[in-house]
Amino acid sequence: MSNILFTSKATAQGGRDGHVKSDDGLIDLNLVNPAGDGDGKGSNPEQLFAAGYSACYDGSLNLMASRQKKEIDSTVTGGEVSLIKDESDGGFKIGVVLNVEIKGVSQEEAEELAKQAHDFCPYSKATRGNIEVELNTKAV
């Protein structure tokens, strides 16, 4: 890998019923399996992925708008990451729904900005062709 800008590091132990902690301690969470029989108090990999993807996508969206000299206010609500049964191998896969609300542009402009952000976002690039991502874009 060349031209690395920064690296984040986290350590997980115990899988879906374990613990995850970032090297700086800002993330320090118990993990629970939503399908399990535990007390349900903790995060899960899908929730953490949803938070990261939503933030990354919203940053890309705002960058695309600024490059076009458009002033927007955007929110990626319900960056929904679902764990889905994979019928092809009996395992699991994930799917994502990004609900994008953009103030300051028309519906057509919002949809174009959302597409550009999806083309640019590092999370979108990393998952392209591997998981289904649905964009629901609304100018508000």
Automatic annotation (TrEMBL):
GO BP annotation list: response to oxidative stress
InterPro entries in UniProt: KH_dom-like_a/b, OHR, OsmC/Ohr_fam, OsmC/Ohrsf
Gene3D superfamilies the record matches: 2.20.25.10, 3.30.300.20
Domain of life: Bacteria
Signal sequence, renumbered to the chain: none
Transmembrane regions listed in the UniProt entry: none
Protein name as annotated: Organic hydroperoxide resistance protein
Taxonomic path: Bacteria, Bacillati, Bacillota, Bacilli, Bacillales
